[in-house]
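Q: Hi! First time doing this. I have a protein sequence and I read that you can turn it into a structure. Is that right? Here it is:
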Amino acid sequence: MKKLLILALALFAAWPAAAEPGIFKLSLWDKTAIASPDNIHDITGIDLGIGSKTETISGVQLDLIFAQTEYELKGVSFAWIINLANDVYGAQFGLLAKAENIAGAQFGFVNMSNREISGLQFGLFNQAEYIHGVQIGFVNYARTIEGLQVGILNIAENGWFPAMVLVNGRF
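A: Yes, that's right. Below is the predicted 3D structure, encoded as structure tokens:
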């Protein structure tokens, strides 16, 4: 703990000389955070915290409880418990991972997308409105699929069959 405190103090001591706007953000909860002057909304580097809510991220978001990106995430977002984003270009990790649009990968126990996924969903339960790629999990659901589902129960409204065990999909 002492080493972590020394590291944090060293980062803030070097802050004015080394930081450019949006390079680093340290969040306590939601938007209670410190960052480059007047910019806790758009991060182009690292967002660290307990719970963080950021509008756009191009880089890495690491949080303990929840990580929320309101508009766009280009990079990697990881939260131990809940991870929420609008658009993800990269990878998203969390016990519960939720995004509107994903171009990349989503890893969690529960993965959800209200719109489109181009890439991979890997978890116990995967849900997507439209998937162009692969879902791997115990239960997979997609309204529309162009790709493959691998799991115990695979449901795709336009799949080979509406519901199948082991494999379902459409190419």
